[in-house]
What does this fold into?
Amino acid sequence: MGSTGVGKSSFILNSMPSGSSTEIKVGHSLKSETSAVQPVCWDAADGTRIELVDTPGFDDSREGVTDVQVLKMIATFLTKRHGANSRLTGLIYLHRISDTRVGGTAQRNLRMFRKLCGPDSLKNVVIVTTMWDQVTTGEGSRREQELMSSNNLFKPLLDGGATMMRHERTAESAAKVIHYLLGKSPTTTQIVRELLQEEKTLEETSAGTELLGNIQVLLKKHEAEMESLRTEMRMELEMGLAEDRQRIEQIMAKLLKELDELKKGIPGAIRNDPPPMYEFANNFSAPDTKCIVHCSQLLRLVKTHESNLASVHPDVLSSVASRTVLFADAVERSVRHAQRIHILRRLLLGLGLMRDTI
It folds into this structure.
């Protein structure tokens, strides 16, 4: 057993005699190549039947493969083989010596391995370190000592009777592990004893309880993450609603202002009443000075409001414009006539032909 990518399949291939046929695949990435429990058998030189069993890790990288499924596969295989003319003499746990730290996944695999084996089977356990070609001798030895002395890692297993050995990608180092375990007395793993002898359910076994605890921890973690996400979404929604409300209020204020301006209308707008009909005679008498001033003011007023009238009352402007021109012409003729009379008076007065009272 061991985490994905530690070299389980590679160890089995190195353990087998040269020329042996097998369908085991060796992975070269973090993707699991072991899809199920795979027993590999061969006969040793002395006729001993040897069977190595490759198992998926409890961190299987394949989509849809859960730790519960992996535990079921291992438990099913062990219970079926128990007492069927086969003896379990050893359990091998593999670990990469090249790992600079032992992460949560590797620690979870190790805890599951301990729960599967139980304390009575630790004397049949070998912890095999792999990937020695990826570290220097000094670096590898230092990490090996750290693993052996850590209470969270291999020290409890070693104190219970397990041993630690190296696999250096050679047939010799793999054979050394096999020969060591063949000298051990057979053992019954804790999960087999719990399922067959104590008649526990898989959930009630030590391995099942450990896995259940892991699942509950993950559930609490994800529930907390979901609650945090809900809170964040509510805050974002409230902020978004506040922004939308402010934007809508601004739009409404603008529309109300435009509506108010529309109700006010155009300053000084002329009512849409029909203009009166004026008749101008070509021979009326000259107006006095006060009348001329009033006419001039009227003409300026019409000129001032010409643009407003053009956009709102074009019909009124057309009628007023034509009549204003006629009226202005009459005023202009009257002014010229008055000016000629005034000049004539001054001339006659100068000649003494008229009295000052004229």
Observations:
- The first strand starts at residue 38 and ends at 43.
- The chain has eleven helices and five strands.
- The CA atoms of residues 194 and 200 lie 6 Å apart.
